[in-house]
Fold each of these.
Amino acid sequence: MIPIIEQGLLLSLAAMGVYISFRLVDLPDLTPDGSYVLGGAVAVVLLHSGHGWVFSTFMAALAAGAAGAVVAFITTRFRINSLLASIMVMTGLYSLSIRVMNAPNLPVPKFDTGKIKSYEQIVGKTPLDDILGGSANTNFEASGLKAVRIPFTNLADGHDLIIISVIVLLSVIIVALFLKTEFGTMLRGYGRNRFAVKVLGVNPDLFAFVGLIMGNVFAGFSGALFSMYSGFADVNMGIGTVVICLAAVILGEIVFGSREPIYGVIFPIVGALLYQFLLTFAMKYGYRIGFKPSDMKLLTALFVVAVIAIRRFKRSEVTI
């Protein structure tokens, strides 16, 4: 049960990014498929370089945010649809992530040795010290071996759940407080009526940049944390991220209906948890009806299409 909640909360961070781009600023963005991987790649590479997990995660989020800025630049500067612009950037990020890792995948290091060390360097003493009574140096830092610390233990004892829950809670609070500000209110207004924002004398392109950057920052943030949690970064781990996150957002909207608690930021959190539970249930009992784990993304895509179609059909009925 605990691992299911942990993975659902990690997914909710990426879903929050998709919610910001698709719902708050109304700019369809497929970049999270690539920025999610880029975040994981940057984080793991920085861990290999000996940096701490906080710094590595921060830089991973910034790198993903830069990808969102590129999409916003293409969209606003060249007046290209955000969907097409994001497809181009997402495609480029695939190669960029491989460049960053210098391989299709990269494990999270347990120890950053830098190079092969001798027995004396690792242990901190020579074999003669035992005979002559020399003191052993058990400090890894002093012996040149840097231990790479990550926040997750994968022991399902609640330790990881507490850390992930705190991170998600802080993210929700920060986004909610930001959306409550004057600028955040205008950002929400941009998503509903961008022409009205222009009337206020504010360049609407600014909100496109902020919305797409925020959306990809959360995607990269989620990818970095998931890589540390799972123990590796892989260039294919972001495939279908947008569709899965959209399904999570829609599930959250279905649960809350017309209500929008905390400006709807809570939608992706609840939806991601529900999605993870449904995924686990389908994998555990789906074999009885011929379901395979590889079918899950197909069913997720069909679910998103079905919900959108039903909503459009209901709206047309109301109009008639």
Note: The chain has 13 helices and four strands.
Amino acid sequence: MIYLLLFFSFLQIGLLSFGGGYAAMPLIQDQIVTTHGWLSMAEFTDLITISQMTPGPIAINSATFVGIKIAGVGGALVATLGCILPSCILVTFIARLYLKYRTVATLQGVLISLRPAVVAMIASAGVSILVTAFWGTGAVTLSGINVVMAVIFLIAFVLLRTGKVNPIFVMLLAGVLKLAAYWLGW
């Protein structure tokens, strides 16, 4: 039964995650944290971090991780299949339609109108992760902010926005800064 639940949960994510991995994060969060309770919000944040550090799309990495955690290797295979199946079918179908009708103005209008929704989904996921990183599961108050995490965020943000710093270096630096803060007792 758990295999069917994993398959259909990630089938929904794969079917409805327009805009890529970041846009899928609210859907993944809803399925694995809110609906089924397979992971806590802190574990979900860790999942997104791990999914970012490993090669491949976030949704597929998430499906594999959750599947392994819930039902072992079989669960990982079923969840991953559920996640990729809609994309394989939809991309094949849409590619044929797009090649046939790509010059139609209505199609271009639909594609343009989807952009703000995708940006909103990405922003929603980002804010959820930011709140969890800064405040954990506690109340969102100025006194409850995790100062170390806020400083690491600001350093990473400045490095990524102002310079031509490699994102891999920024991730490694963030990890080193957090380890240093831990060892110093912050």
Note: The chain is about 80% helix and 0% strand.
